[in-house]
Amino acid sequence: xxxxxxxxxxxxxxxxxxxxxxxxxxxxxxxxxxxxxxxxxxxxxxxxxxxxxxxxxxxxxxxxxxxxxxxxxxxxxxxxxxxxxxxxxxxxxxxxxxxxxxxxxxxxxxxxxxxxxxxxxxxxxxxxxxxxxxxxxxxxxxxxxxxxxxxxxxxxx
Length: 157
Known about the structure:
Layout: H1 6-28, H2 31-35, E1 38-45, H3 47-50, E2 55-56, H4 58-69, E3 74-87, E4 90-102, E5 111-125, E6 128-143, H5 147-156
Parallel strand pairs: 1-6
Antiparallel strand pairs: 1-2, 3-4, 4-5, 5-6
């Protein structure tokens, strides 16, 4: 990583900031802030997490996130080990993720945690770097996976 220009270093910080903003927005349920993380033609692949199809389109993905997250009492998304490759106005980011989901319920454990990594493709836009495509690869989980279904029912009510 030697010999990076100031512009490249600034891009790397801005790219990591998109992921930090994404995590913060989910954890505080700030849907307007979350929208600023994605391009309109976003492709989100969470098949290893929820078994769902790949979701295309920012608005469709925001609805899917809200459906799950709104019904939870709390979440905490932590990322680390950001590995960034710059390609002009495009970039890729791999980051480890640990996401804790909390919902007290009468059916068991009130926590569900997943660990793995994100593979993210970003594009520079007039508004800064935005996620155009990302994939979550889940390597492990612990706790009550049923929380996600219960949270969706709670958000829908």
